[in-house]
Amino acid sequence: MKGSLLNKKAENERDQLDLVPFLYVYHELMLDHCGPPSSFESPSRFSQISALIRASPYACEGANIKDEEVMQFVLRVHSRAHLAYLDSLAGSLASERSKWGCSTCSFVNEPTSSLCDMCKERQPKNKWLYFEQLDGDTTYYNSATRTASLKAVKCACKLALMLVQGETKSGFAVVRPPGHHAGRERVEGFCVLNSTAIAAEAALAAGAKRIFIFDWDVHHGNGIQDHFYKRADVFYASIHAEGIYPHTGNEEDVGDGEGVGFTLNVPLSKGTDTKQYVHAFTRAILPAMEGYAPDLVIIAAGFDALSSDPMHIFDVNQSAYSTMLSSISAALPTTPVGLILEGGYDSRSIASAIDHCAQVLFDMKS
C-alpha cells in the first residue's frame, strides 16, 4: 500500500457507488463547532485530515439527508427534551450576543485574546462570548454546535445507510463533535449527540438485523452501552483504559434482560502497548464478533490510544488499527464495515491513522 489513498487519483470515474470498496463521508460545517483554544476537541484536530479528504476521489458529502428523515433516528437515541435543551442553548447564545452589541468582534470562532478591549472588560468570569460550557468539564456549545452536531449525525447515518443498502462496502464517517459519551438526556465528554448509536438505529431501520459495534476509543463509550444494554440486536464491545473517565465499562457489565451477553468490556491498564492491545482484541473482541455473525460492523473509531496523543494513556501505534481491520475483514469478508470518528487529539496522528485505516479497507474490500 504505497502512498496515501486520500491522494490517489481515481483511475476511472465512478459510475455507480455500488462499485466503490471504500468511501469517506464528511462535511466542512463540522469545523465551526468550537470551545476555548485550550480544548483538546477543537477544529485543529481536522487541520490535516480535512485537506486530505477534499483531495480524495472517494469522498462524499453526508448532509444531503433531510432533517425529518434523520430526526426519526435521533429520537430513538435522545429525548425530545434533550433536543429542546440544545435548541434553547442556541437561542440563549443568540440573545447573549445581542446584549454585547459590538460590531468589532465576530463572536464566533475567535479566541478571547482577539476580543476588543470593551468586550474583554464586559466578559463574565469563566465565560467566553462564543460558547457555553455544558457539563462542568469538557463539553462546549457555540452558535455552530447544533448544526455541526446534526451534520455529524447525518454523515454517520449516510454511511450506515449506504453500507446496508449495498452502495459501498466500507467507509469512514469523519465527524466531530464526537458522540459515544452522549446519553439520552446527557451532554458529556465533548459529546452532544451520539452519532454512532444513531447510525446503528438508522441501519436497523434500513434492514440490518444484527449490528456489532466495536469501540476502540481509549475511553469507554458509556452512551452507546447505555442505549443498547438491554437489547440483542446490537452487540457493543469496547477496549478501553480502566480507571479513567467516564469510569464505566467494567468486565462484569455484560448486558441486562434480553441484552445479557451482548455487551463486552475489555478494560486495560494505563500504558498498554501495541502488542498487548492487539492481543486483547484477538483474544476477546474478534471471537465475539465472529460468534455474533453480524450483517454490519460499526467501529467507534477513536484514536486517543495512540502514543502520540496528548492525553498519553496508552502506548499504541497505527499498526494496531491496521491489524484489527485486516483481521475483521478476513474473518467477515462479506460483511460491510463502517468507521465513525470518536476521540483522538493529535491532528497529524489522526490524519495518518485514518489514512492507514482507509487503505486497509480499500484493499481488503476491493
Architecture overview:
Belongs to the histone deacetylase family. HD type 2 subfamily. By secondary structure, the chain is an alpha/beta fold. It folds into two domains: 20-79 and 150-365, Arginase, Chain A (3-Layer(aba) Sandwich); 84-133, no CATH class. It contains ten helices and ten strands. α8 (274-292) runs parallel beside α9 and α9 runs parallel beside α10 (347-365). The relative contact order is 0.14.
Salient structural properties:
10 helices; Arginase, Chain A; 366 residues; 2 domains; 36% helix; two-stranded antiparallel sheet; eight-stranded parallel β-sheet; alpha/beta
Low-confidence stretches: 9-18, 98-114, 124-133
**CATH level-two architecture of the largest domain:** 3-Layer(aba) Sandwich
- The portion of residues forming beta strands comes to 5-15%
Whole-number mean pLDDT: 85
Tell me roughly what share of residues is in helical segments.
Answer: 25-40%
Regarding quaternary structure, what we see is single chain
Number of strands: 10
- Total individual domains: 2
InterPro entries: HDACs, His_deacetylse_dom, His_deacetylse_dom_sf, Ureohydrolase_dom_sf, Znf_RanBP2
Enzyme class: hydrolase
Family: Belongs to the histone deacetylase family. HD type 2 subfamily.
Organism: Palpitomonas bilix
Outline the fold blueprint:
Blueprint: E1 23-26, H1 49-55, E2 59-61, H2 67-74, H3 80-100, H4 117-122, E3 131-133, E4 140-142, H5 145-164, E5 170-173, H6 195-205, E6 211-215, H7 222-228, E7 234-241, E8 263-268, H8 274-292, E9 296-301, H9 319-331, E10 337-341, H10 347-365
Parallel strand pairs: 1-2, 1-5, 5-10, 6-7, 6-9, 7-8, 9-10
Antiparallel strand pairs: 3-4
Helix pairs in contact: 5-6, 8-9, 9-10
